Amino acid sequence: MSSMAIPSLPARNLVAFFDSLREDGLLIGPAETADAAAFLTRTGFADRRTVRAGLCAMLAKSPKEQRLFGRAFDAYFVGAEVMDAQRREAEEAEAARRARIETGKDALDGYEVSEELAEAFASATQGRRDWLKNMLGYAQDGNRNLPLMKAYLKKIATGWLSEDAGYGMDAADGADEDLLHKNLSELTEDEVPQALRLIDMLVRRILLASERRRRRRGRRGMPDIRQTIHRSLRTGGVPLVPVYKKRPSASRRIVVLCDVSESMLRFSEFALTFVSALSRQGGKLRAFIFSEGVCEIGTEDLSHFETDVRSSGLWRRGTDIGGALEEMLAAKPPALDAQTLLLVLSDAKTVDRPRAEAAIAEAAGRVREILWLNPDRQFSAYAKNIAEHVTMLRCNSIDELASACAGALR
Hints:
Oligomer: single chain
CATH superfamily of the largest domain: von Willebrand factor, type A domain
Distance between the termini: 37 Å
Structural class: alpha/beta
Low-confidence stretches: 1-8, 164-173
CATH class of the largest domain: Alpha Beta
CATH architecture of the largest domain: 3-Layer(aba) Sandwich
Number of helices: 17
Strand content: 5-15%
Mean pLDDT: 78
Number of strands: 6
Helix content: 40-55%
Number of domains: 3
């Protein structure tokens, strides 16, 4: 599959690819861009493996740059089959959007509404629908400022579509909606691939909503003269579009401690998938798995998470979070410090409660915050005993898990 043909990319896609690499920190100037373009002109796009190897050799030198290059390449250079699937997915999504708009307009017959408002109405909960109808009736009263009220409602609808659709009941349709609210402990093996696909969809929507919020805030840094000149070379300086430096984000260290006892394996896989994808917006992520011992795992590729757990020596052993935290607190260099957000993925069951409570209290004094993602419907007495040291979040379904992860990493 690695040698399948790649459809020719428009020039603007190549430019976007090079821009993406620069934003990731690769030093790619006009000379490298010209060399890459000449290489693609000679080789074409017939062999994906050749294209990837050649561009990587020219543009990425260190192992870190090669990893960044690989991620960007997979995003911009896809095979014909993948492109066809993406096109079909986009067409289906647009058809579903048009259907929601028509449904909303039919339900709001008698009101003059925008497409955004009709779609928001069709996707909203019953409470929001009732509120919108009340506001529309209020707006169309002859004594009210109709244009101003319509502008206000359109803004509200746009906010619902961009943010609330990021996760929750509006994020899925049909079978996905049932899976979204299903108890995670009741998922069958056949449902796991569908659940992982749903998680991927929710992650993309959450990230999109986050990016839209960031753009609305309009925060940007000082003018970047170097990048402004670089980009102006494409058009001979006309028009000159200023480029601004990104504002430095606050350093954020995230440590995830995953319970991989037999009853928690699937939940930890789902939760770590969410956290790993969302944390790529900013921050350094480290992940540890524990049962009666603890060890660190990589987060670049979680597709083999279950296999890695089974081969770690921690599979099918008791749960001892106290011992795991003691080992992490004693590590040199320390795994936990004052800048760390500690996420615990566990059902709050352990073999030695006093030891666990003492370790959690000590960890709480070392880290910035401890958030505990718990899949149980009812919290245990032990979970309530440690409430003063941690924030316990109920994550019984994919819907609740998405909300908890999005809120924790916002």
